[in-house]
Records
---
Amino acid sequence: MTTELSYTIEEVSQFLKVSKLTIYDLVKKGELPVFRVGRQMRIAANDLDNYIKNNKTNQKTTLPASVFEPRRSDPKETNHVVISGQDLVLDMLGKQIEKNSTYKSLRSFTGSLNSLISMYNGECDIVSLHLFDGDTGEYNLPYLKKILVGHSFILFNLLSRKAGLYVKKGNPLKITSWKDLEREDIQIVNREKGSGARILLDEQLRINKISPKNINGYEHEENNHLSVASAVSTGVADVGVGIEKAAKIVGIDFIPLITEQYDLVILKTPANERLIRIVTEILSSNQFQSEVDSLGDYDTSRTGKIIYETN
């Protein structure tokens, strides 16, 4: 068997100096072939070379206009659906979409705010959100109204879950609230900019009049809940922000401080009518809700409810 060099989506995005969601968009359109190894998609080096060669102009490597301009929905495009977000439930949703339609799901593990901006730019189809707004106490809708300007959209509830602080087993530093984070004896581990957990922390710091400059470890970033929980578990940090499930997986204590509304948004376009119908049916089904309930630590009492819909 011939061993062929290949790259991950992230490696290709770094090489081409574009976002990962831009690469997913190229995959969705069939412009960049991929193959799967388990859950991970990879791009063969030869296919990447061919893509670059095919898009050269005047001997300079340039990307087509579609990379830099918002994608316009076209029913003739390949039948891929890009689902952006990190929760395991999104993998379950992708499998159900494939089971109940001819769509093929592509997963992007990108934070809520960055995913929403990419949706505005036409680079993904389903975005999961848990964006807390400190001024209203609401989740998601205040951000949607500001970012998806000029777009019609529908917002579904996917589930509710507890968010709060990861602390070491037994909570030796007696951490109980957001205000404890500015203590000099506490070192935190943060999430990346654009993630829902990072926005929750920043909004709580703002509400409680705490300067990030007074938070030890504020610049230490990890890219997912499990990495944050692991940093606390191994003693790299004393506390981190995340969801309850990751704390149980890693085996540390969790201090719940807020109930997150974890939602899905889809743009309302003629090309998305079928997708919206399929997602509505899946979220409302007893089968899907039972599968989510079996994971534990999730509340599905509002799953499938339309939170907001524009005309």
Note: The longest strand covers residues 153-167.
---
Amino acid sequence: MSGAEALGGRNCADGSAVAHEARRWLGTPYVHQAARRGLGADCLGLVRGVWSAVVGPWPERVPPYTADWSEASGEEVLWRAARRHLLPARGAVPQAGDVLLFRMRRGAVAKHLGIVVSGAEAIRFVHAYSGHGVVESSLSPAWQARVVARFCFPGGAGSGSAMRAKAPGGEFASRRKGATEASRPVGHPRLGARVGNLATIGKRGARWQP
């Protein structure tokens, strides 16, 4: 099932609106698990905040999570949640409004998110970075090499404003102590993706096929 089918055939939300909202968060201090513009946010909190402004209420309860996410178990919890609620990104290269998922080091789980605010040849993205807060950065070769998936926020099937009803259970919710993951782990793609290769990201839930 494709991401579009999973979300009722919706298209991506307006990228300029997503980028505009993401830039409103610039300067917000970095606070783990927070999602309050101007007060504090981490990378997931930034995405949640932009979602709330552009799409609507966040579709799942997010339980407490540690800074290392699920590195000890190797479970791709954040990736699975992104596949559940976001759509595969459009086009061959990142464009405004896209959500990037990063693997910060080889062999670790993907646990960092950013929102593209300008595309074409000068790709820039906004993200909440420990020790820096919410900042805007260039998608430099070093950052490009860490990208493992590319998504977009869902828009409504017609107006672009409606979103699907809350799922009864999700990947975030499954992280409760003793819970079982709903699906098998996503494999670890190798690092080293270049911007020109990002067209392949988004197939089968935005998984990179080298």
Note: Confidence is low (pLDDT under 50) at residues 1-6, 157-210.
---
Amino acid sequence: MFSFIRQFRRRRLLRRPFPEAWLGYLDARVPFFRTLSPELRQPFLDKLKVFAWEKEFIGAGGLEVTDEIRVVISATAVQLVLHLGLSYYDRLREVIVYPSAFRIPDRTGGVLGEAKNWGSVILSWESVLAGLRNPGDGHDTATHEFAHVLDRADGAFDGTPNLRAYSHYRAWSAVMSEHFHKLQQGQRRERQVLDDYGGLNEAEFFAVATESFFEKPRQMQEKTPDLYEELKRFYGWDPAAGT
């Protein structure tokens, strides 16, 4: 029942015209948008407007949510699911945006982003922009946190999202586990591609690997080709080839 209502609402949003001003935000702030092929641009824009209007964006720490903030963050989310579908974000209800690093009870220091169990993503707008300004450094807070949302879509933060086919799980588990443990051991190839934070647990490994897949695809393809192939099969992208 809820799925039917959601699909009905998404079809209604899809029929609304894409605001022309939003294209300016994408051109100015989102480098990967400019590289999209003509075949992918319209599906990307369709999913972006549905995500931007469907999810609740909440300003925190004195930040007022503008269309620019809504559009840019939505673009980072949609990049991950362009070949998967918005259903991977069905559990996500709201995106909370702080102007910069924020604090969380029982955590020391400032936090740049966090994905919550109950359907929230919290982001630092400053960090979102920093990740987009440096598209090849392997660090992108928004990509990292939305990867956690994909991971959580099957009910747990465990580093394994809902894969495209049941037959994919065995290879996924073997490849992810191998490189996760090698990163924990500090092996050179993994550290050349992946941030050490990915060694914290399987969920963080998947999120860190997703950042590198989109931001350092050629390095990942060269140093850890099997990891690259698993992520390519899941996301449907081949960023090393520019597609």
Note: Strands lie at 56-59, 94-98, 113-115, 120-124.
